[in-house]
Amino acid sequence: MNMKILGAFAAVALLAACAQSETGASSGAGAQAAQSGAVPGSQEDLVANVGDRVFYDFDKSNLKTEGKTTLDRQSAWLAKYPQVSVQVAGNCDERGTVEYNLALGQRRAKASRDYLVAKGVAASRVTTISNGKEKPTALGSDEQAWAQNRNAITSVR
């Protein structure tokens, strides 16, 4: 009887050791994605480890320093995953006409796309779309919400 109990404990200890070695720490980009729980090269990986959006000032489509920093990280991420294509969606706050905001959203998406292409991302991997003011990311009619809605969002395709 004691031999059966000892054998059972030995089996449990062996299984625990195997499980521990499989979940040990790793290094590199895969480890960073694993820490975030995202599959490398996925939308979740992009959001968690790089950032998926850049913000614009009111009535502007020129990139700010913070936006360029985010796009620099996106271009490096895209270089690491050459099989990934993305779409950049330009967005606006609720002020202005539908037509005006569609055009402004397109200029914002194009500014982000052009920056990525200038950083070495193949133009064929980056498409653009304008949502104008039709897909707000923040609800509200105040400066805080408007600032969040003036963006270009990069999505994995």
Number of domains: 1
Mean pLDDT: 85
Distance between the termini: 60 Å
How many runs of DSSP E, i.e. beta strands? 4
- Mass-distribution shape: globular
Report the biggest beta sheet as strand number plus sense, adding barrel if it closes: 4 strands, mixed
Helical residue percent band:
40-55%
Structural class by sheet pairing and helices: alpha+beta
> Within the CATH hierarchy, at the fold level, what is the topology?
60s Ribosomal Protein L30, Chain: A
Strand arrangement, major sheet: 1-4-2-3
The proportion of strand residues reads 5-15%
Oligomer: single chain
Low-pLDDT windows of residues: 5-31
CATH H-level superfamily title:
OmpA-like domain
User: Count the helices. How many?
Assistant: 6
What are the secondary-structure elements, in order, as H or E?
Answer: HHHEHEHEHE
CATH architecture: 2-Layer Sandwich
Radius of gyration: 23 Å
CATH class descriptor = Alpha Beta
Explain this structure to me?
The chain has 157 residues and is an alpha+beta fold. The protein has one domain: OmpA-like domain (60s Ribosomal Protein L30, Chain: A, 2-Layer Sandwich), CATH 3.30.1330.60. Helices cover 51% and strands 14% of the residues. Strands 1-4-2-3 form a four-stranded mixed sheet. Helix 5 links the parallel strand 2 and strand 3. The longest helix has 21 residues. The chain is globular. The N and C termini lie far apart (60 Å).
Tags for this model:
single chain, 157 residues, alpha+beta, 60s Ribosomal Protein L30, Chain: A, four-stranded mixed β-sheet, 4 strands, 51% helix
